[in-house]
Design brief:
There is one protein chain. With 353 residues, the chain is an alpha/beta fold. Helices cover 38% and strands 17% of the residues. It contains eleven helices and 16 strands. The protein has a seven-stranded mixed sheet with strand order 6-5-4-7-10-15-16, with helices on both faces. Strand 5, helix 7 and strand 6 form a beta-alpha-beta unit.
Length: 353
């Protein structure tokens, strides 16, 4: 297996500052690099809800630090903070996973009567240690996934990615973009294409910003050009992340992933889903059981504060879709690779927690 050089990795979007959380405001990229300083859990929840921080792993990490902020301010408010953070985004299972980890720490420290009276000094410290562990584990997982995913790619290949799955969406390095970073570093990936990813343009604004900043040559395409690109033979893999993966391998990801999977299968292009094991939700049997977030149609009716659609028009704006497991060639996590995922193969790798 090719080693993953420590390069193409200069961006950190979630930064703990001892008494507050600093988040790179992704809504302003690439025009401005501005950080938000969140000093309580409510501000963290708002940043998650408003997409200032986005990407399933990064959302979970930010929420964990939001719990630390609540403990620092008033441990008696922890239950309220946990509920507020949990409600910020419904689809990304990493959010629930991270908050469940933080809740277990709280319950372990609390007294037998459930109070925090004797734990006010200890709780912030132990919760900060757990949040740091969640963040550090994610970065290590990303580097491991980069190695595993890159090893599946034949030298000289072209790849297409969707949305943003890099350092901005994680603790660093990235999931699908981590595989691309590793593949470029090892010489396996010769061509990188990124879809613009409407309506928030995470591919155009964020992925292209990351790749350019880290010295990786990449080409932007319109979302609607993807099938034509595949037909030209320039792409051998579509590499995407995930916000939730069901027990049978069905995968919820940014809207548009499903149609890429269909086009890839038609053109003989392989599809790789890259996500940490925290994204696997064995309690969800299939994609039919995944709650798909609907956001305001206003996000489709204009851009940058300027309306681009005639007055009176309506819009339907699901922000995720589900790719059936039968269209996925490889699912890469830090635990290993599941080729052609199904219930049995998923259980074999992820059944033991």
């Amino acid at each position: 297996m090719d080693a993953t050089p420590d390069c193409h990795d200069s961006i950190r979007a979630v930064l703990w500052q001892d008494d507050h959380l600093r988040l790179l405001d992704q809504r302003l990229l690439p025009a401005r690099e501005r950080y938000l300083d969140c000093r309580d859990s409510g501000e963290v929840a708002q940043a998650i809800r408003d997409l200032a921080v986005r990407g399933a792993p990064a959302i979970g990490i930010a929420a964990a630090w939001g719990v630390v902020l609540a403990a620092q301010r008033d441990p008696a408010t922890l239950d309220t903070a946990l509920a507020q953070l949990r409600a910020a985004r419904p689809t990304a299972v990493n959010l629930m996973w991270a908050l469940d980890r933080m809740r277990r720490v709280i319950e372990a420290v609390r007294g037998s009567d459930g109070s925090v009276a004797g734990a006010r000094a200890e709780l912030p410290r132990v919760l900060a240690r757990e949040a740091r562990a969640i963040q550090d584990e994610d970065l290590a997982a990303n580097r491991r996934m980069g190695e595993l995913g890159a090893a599946l790619i034949a030298p000289g290949s072209g790849v297409l990615t969707h949305c943003n799955t890099g350092s901005l969406a994680t603790a660093g390095y990235g999931t699908a973009l981590g595989v691309i970073r590793a593949g470029v570093s090892s010489g396996r990936i010769a061509r990188v294409f990124a879809g613009e990813t409407r309506p928030w343009l995470q591919g155009a604004r964020l992925t292209m910003w990351e790749l350019t900043r880290d010295g990786i040559d990449a080409t932007l395409i319109a979302d609607s050009a993807a099938a034509h690109l595949m037909r030209t033979g320039q792409v051998q893999w579509v590499i995407v992340g995930a916000d939730r993966i069901a027990a049978n391998g069905d995968t919820a990801n940014k809207i548009g992933t499903y149609q890429l999977a269909i086009a890839a299968r038609h053109h003989g292009v392989r599809l790789m889903v890259v996500a940490p094991s925290s994204t696997i939700d064995l309690a969800t049997a299939s994609g039919a059981d995944i709650d798909i977030e609907l956001r305001s149609g206003d996000e489709l009716l204009g851009y940058g504060g300027t309306r681009t659609v005639v007055a009176g028009a309506r819009a339907w704006n699901p922000v995720f879709d589900v790719t059936p497991h039968a269209l996925i060639d490889a699912l890469v996590s830090e635990r290993g690779v599941v080729e052609r995922p199904d219930v049995a193969r998923m259980a074999a790798l992820f059944g033991a927690r």
